[in-house]
């Protein structure tokens, strides 16, 4: 629980005045879902900050569930700002312009909050938070999400999400103070992003931080290799349990048993038949596709040849190899 | 960084290095509006003949007109596909680039991206857009198009490919003539319209550390919580966070939807090919007919001249046929070229798919047989 005012007030989340309470209809905890794209964007922005800047901020975009209890952060963009001991300056025109541009390309993604690349919450955080949660340009009537992501060298990248409650003794003070309430968050990615993330993750151990984009056969080989590794791990564990090196775990055993039971039982005749029909389908389509390719190649060569005849030198077309489907 | 000028072109592009952020941005944008075609801009810079793509943004999609719902979707797709070279999005592009420049993004256009579905991206729009980019003077000539295949990525391996138009095609397109003659002249075949450039993925240091952090759990799980975890697996298997890696989608055995779709696409392309063939044949017949007419006219004129010469009359000019007859224009071969390339693409894709799928099937067969 982080409140920025270090003076000896008692901070309570309570409605101050009618006007203020109206700006924050709900301070109920929300569940925040972060898509990796937004995180990568923030990390990139953090790398591109000006040398003297401690932290950078930006606007979070995303979608809200209908009852407002779940917020999915899907996108974000950076906003320039200047911070000194006494004051903070956020480029609001820039924020508005970018928001408009983003809305044009992605009308579904609306303003949900803002991010900062330092774990610290201070008075300026409260000011900015109040701006993002305000009526009109802000997220009103929904609470604005504040996401902090620390990018300090040598430490883990810590992600925290907050919503805020109004706090302060007078209406004047309320504008530059608020109570940040931590809310749970999770990183969730979609199926379509899995392949991309996998490729990104495959580069994590390479020294130059590069990874080639694999083709299908390589991907298959890798997946088979990974599966073999996992089987190896499990059989090692089972072997150790049998040898008595590790205390057996009933739940784990049951889980393994039910996994093994998942293997389908088919009669050899059925298996043979299913296998043959399927493999024939695949090979036939591949064969036909290759025949078509040869035909197309032939027709193109003929067309060119007919015209090239008059010329002294025939055109040279790169030789193509047409591979017949491998018959195994 | 923002005003860093790309090094002057010294050799052919050796590769495209795409930042993790751009990969995520593209996959998310393409997948969220699948199967509608979407496009966007790529920003970055060039270094040592490698194109570094470090940022991207989406182009606005065109909303379907509510009143003509029949043509709506079709129209949207075609106008979306043309967005990168459309005048209306030029404003958007400059605005966005200007804005991004302020936050230290490499504000240098290095190309554009588009989504595709099972390799169906070779069409006139792609070629025209890329031609626009490669010949536009405001951009660097060295631009690429990244094609993200959404359906292929869903199968387990990231379908991201980079293309550029070849010099041959640019030369032919500059003359804007795609007759057989010009194809021969430029040595342009369907195989050398586009050249593919190898793509690599690049992570920043922060992303690397972040990915490491994601894949290593904070502390090893003690035994009781393992049991608890397993209980969770039983009650709701989807609730468990799936690891980033490895990804077992490529072990999927369902082959029918993919085969069906590819075969369908292939048939469609063949149909187009057939239409193009008919057009060419029609043109050939027309040409033959006209040429026969001209020959007949020339014979007639010659006979006339002979008789005129006999009667000492003035000879009639023999090249007057050029004014009287007009040879039909040869239809553009561009469409059929692209279509051929598309068919080749489908065929190769099927080939690759057959290879992996038969390997998987033999694996399953072997595994099940060994059990019996």
From TrEMBL, chain A:
<dbReference type="InterPro" id="IPR000555">
    <property type="entry name" value="JAMM/MPN+_dom"/>
</dbReference>
<comment type="similarity">
    <text>Belongs to the eIF-3 subunit F family.</text>
</comment>
<dbReference type="Pfam" id="PF01398">
    <property type="entry name" value="JAB"/>
</dbReference>
<dbReference type="InterPro" id="IPR027531">
    <property type="entry name" value="eIF3f"/>
</dbReference>
<dbReference type="GO" id="GO:0003743">
    <property type="term" value="F:translation initiation factor activity"/>
</dbReference>
<feature type="compositionally biased region" description="Low complexity">
    <location>
        <begin position="314"/>
        <end position="328"/>
    </location>
</feature>
<dbReference type="Pfam" id="PF13012">
    <property type="entry name" value="MitMem_reg"/>
</dbReference>
<dbReference type="GO" id="GO:0016282">
    <property type="term" value="C:eukaryotic 43S preinitiation complex"/>
</dbReference>
<protein>
    <recommendedName>
        <fullName>Eukaryotic translation initiation factor 3 subunit F</fullName>
    </recommendedName>
</protein>
<dbReference type="GO" id="GO:0033290">
    <property type="term" value="C:eukaryotic 48S preinitiation complex"/>
</dbReference>
<dbReference type="GO" id="GO:0001732">
    <property type="term" value="P:formation of cytoplasmic translation initiation complex"/>
</dbReference>
<comment type="function">
    <text>Component of the eukaryotic translation initiation factor 3 (eIF-3) complex, which is involved in protein synthesis of a specialized repertoire of mRNAs and, together with other initiation factors, stimulates binding of mRNA and methionyl-tRNAi to the 40S ribosome. The eIF-3 complex specifically targets and initiates translation of a subset of mRNAs involved in cell proliferation.</text>
</comment>
<dbReference type="GO" id="GO:0031369">
    <property type="term" value="F:translation initiation factor binding"/>
</dbReference>
<comment type="subunit">
    <text>Component of the eukaryotic translation initiation factor 3 (eIF-3) complex.</text>
</comment>
<keyword id="KW-0648">Protein biosynthesis</keyword>
<keyword id="KW-0963">Cytoplasm</keyword>
<dbReference type="InterPro" id="IPR024969">
    <property type="entry name" value="EIF3F/CSN6-like_C"/>
</dbReference>
<feature type="domain" description="MPN">
    <location>
        <begin position="32"/>
        <end position="168"/>
    </location>
</feature>
<dbReference type="InterPro" id="IPR037518">
    <property type="entry name" value="MPN"/>
</dbReference>
<keyword id="KW-0396">Initiation factor</keyword>
<dbReference type="GO" id="GO:0071541">
    <property type="term" value="C:eukaryotic translation initiation factor 3 complex, eIF3m"/>
</dbReference>
<dbReference type="GO" id="GO:0008237">
    <property type="term" value="F:metallopeptidase activity"/>
</dbReference>
Automatic annotation (TrEMBL), chain B:
<protein>
    <recommendedName>
        <fullName>Eukaryotic translation initiation factor 3 subunit H</fullName>
    </recommendedName>
</protein>
<feature type="region of interest" description="Disordered">
    <location>
        <begin position="65"/>
        <end position="84"/>
    </location>
</feature>
<dbReference type="GO" id="GO:0005852">
    <property type="term" value="C:eukaryotic translation initiation factor 3 complex"/>
</dbReference>
<dbReference type="InterPro" id="IPR050242">
    <property type="entry name" value="JAMM_MPN+_peptidase_M67A"/>
</dbReference>
<dbReference type="GO" id="GO:0003743">
    <property type="term" value="F:translation initiation factor activity"/>
</dbReference>
<dbReference type="InterPro" id="IPR037518">
    <property type="entry name" value="MPN"/>
</dbReference>
<keyword id="KW-0648">Protein biosynthesis</keyword>
<dbReference type="GO" id="GO:0008237">
    <property type="term" value="F:metallopeptidase activity"/>
</dbReference>
<comment type="subunit">
    <text>Component of the eukaryotic translation initiation factor 3 (eIF-3) complex.</text>
</comment>
<feature type="compositionally biased region" description="Polar residues">
    <location>
        <begin position="66"/>
        <end position="81"/>
    </location>
</feature>
<dbReference type="GO" id="GO:0001732">
    <property type="term" value="P:formation of cytoplasmic translation initiation complex"/>
</dbReference>
<comment type="similarity">
    <text>Belongs to the eIF-3 subunit H family.</text>
</comment>
<dbReference type="GO" id="GO:0033290">
    <property type="term" value="C:eukaryotic 48S preinitiation complex"/>
</dbReference>
<comment type="function">
    <text>Component of the eukaryotic translation initiation factor 3 (eIF-3) complex, which is involved in protein synthesis of a specialized repertoire of mRNAs and, together with other initiation factors, stimulates binding of mRNA and methionyl-tRNAi to the 40S ribosome. The eIF-3 complex specifically targets and initiates translation of a subset of mRNAs involved in cell proliferation.</text>
</comment>
<dbReference type="InterPro" id="IPR000555">
    <property type="entry name" value="JAMM/MPN+_dom"/>
</dbReference>
<dbReference type="GO" id="GO:0016282">
    <property type="term" value="C:eukaryotic 43S preinitiation complex"/>
</dbReference>
<feature type="domain" description="MPN">
    <location>
        <begin position="16"/>
        <end position="169"/>
    </location>
</feature>
<dbReference type="InterPro" id="IPR045810">
    <property type="entry name" value="eIF3h_C"/>
</dbReference>
<keyword id="KW-0396">Initiation factor</keyword>
<dbReference type="Pfam" id="PF19445">
    <property type="entry name" value="eIF3h_C"/>
</dbReference>
<keyword id="KW-0963">Cytoplasm</keyword>
<dbReference type="InterPro" id="IPR027524">
    <property type="entry name" value="eIF3h"/>
</dbReference>
